[in-house]
Amino acid sequence: MKVNGKPTRTIWVEAAPAGGPGAVGIIDQTRLPHHLETVTLTTLEDAAHAIKAMLVRGAPLIGATAAYGFALALHGNASDARLTAAYDTLYATRPTAVNLRWALDEMVRVLTPLDPAAREAAAWTRAGEIADEDVEICRQIGLNGLEIIKEIAARKNGAPVNILTHCNAGWLATVDWGTATSPIYHAHDAGIPVHVWVDETRPRNQGAALTAWELNNHGVPHHVIPDNTGGHLMQHGMVDMVIVGTDRTTADGDVCNKIGTYLKALAAHDNGVPFYVALPSPTIDFGLSSGFDIPIEERSGDEVSHIWGRTPSGEITTVQITPDGSPVANYAFDVTPARLVTGLVTEKGVAAANREAIAALFPERVRAAA
Ligand code: MRU
């Protein structure tokens, strides 16, 4: 997508001195929306830190960063032991998004059979392919989701299609386009009037900080809303569809996504609002049936007890919003059962959220997981 008119991805390879370690550029998402800053990663530890501290986040981008981190790790030592160390370090960064494991498994699959002398170059090639594949997958998700928005628009006689989304499943969460936002960008670019309700997404505010920043940049009409507003909007016919991303969806169609997604699905179900999940196939865990077997990340309580933002004087600061001594809990994800999901918008088409429909779109992945 464009930032200040310039086509921009969330992760890219930077020029590095010949024979020296490689370098990868990222947008530091902890600084948005108030500052657009980039960071250069040159080591395995840099990449692991970027994922763990959420300079990069969102399931597909976590996967792409892990792939580049793997390539960075192999400079000067591409032994079998180094492959294992790189895998373990990156795998330990965040537990829920399955794209991380998918990308690491993919790197190991490609690199292990090679002579160690050939591994570093091959790692850069495969990491670049994973990033490029993500862009194309997200573009296809957008085209498939566009058909859903078109159908709703056709019933609205030119009135905007109101779309509610949670967290940031935008281009910042992927390499480009986004998952949930890709259909929205495609619709907007095709001249279909759309308006987005952006859940702020406490505690880290990925909606308020990141999705709103993206939509603003692209000129898509939107309002940021407190997380508990969606039910009210749905009761009053102000939401035509919900579309969210996911960090891991099981072979049976249970959807794990940012905490609060489940409540939106319940409200959508109660009000007859279609609830779609946009996802690339590397987000499907073909080895898992129940969403309740997905590890749910628990993060620092500081994210709940404190909030950061910009003061009127322009200072970026963090303030405490809970009383001293009040314990907090910070579960980062929840599970929406398949029965509440209207459809899964993938790069291969829209599937019902059940084992048969998912397997029909991705038979080769089902075979590989067997
Ligand atoms: O904790 P985050 O910001 O990494 O969580 C991100 C989400 O929950 C996204 O909705 C999900 O990864 C889908 S991104 C295309």
Span from first to last CA?
A: 37 Å
Give the topology string: H per helix, E per strand: EEEEEHHHHHEHEHEHEEEHEEHEEEEEHH
Identify the overall geometry.
Answer: globular
Mean pLDDT: 97
CATH class of the largest domain: Alpha Beta
β-sheet strand percentage: 15-25%
Spatial order of strands in the largest sheet: 8-7-6-9-12-17-18
What does this protein look like?
The structure is a single chain. With about 375 residues, this protein is of the alpha/beta class. Helix content is about 40%, strand content about 20%. It has a seven-stranded mixed sheet, with helices on both faces. The protein has a four-stranded mixed sheet with strand order 13-10-11-16, covered by helices on one side. It has a three-stranded antiparallel sheet with strand order 3-4-5, with helices on one face. β17 (about 345) and β18 form a beta hairpin. It has helices spanning about 45-50, 60-75, 80-90, 100-110, 115-155, 180-190, 205-220, 230-235, 260-270, 300-305, 355-360, 365-370, and strands at about 1-5, 5, 10-15, 25, 40, 160-165, 195-200, 220-225, 240-245, 250, 255-260, 275-280, 285, 305-310, 315-320, 335, 345, 350. The radius of gyration is 20 Å and the shape is globular. It has twelve helices and 18 strands. It folds into two domains: about 1-135, Four Helix Bundle (Hemerythrin (Met), subunit A) (Up-down Bundle); about 145-370, Rossmann fold. 5-S-methyl-1-O-phosphono-5-thio-D-ribulose binds near residues 245, 246 and 332. The site of 5-S-methyl-1-O-phosphono-5-thio-D-ribulose has 17 residues, from α2 and β11.
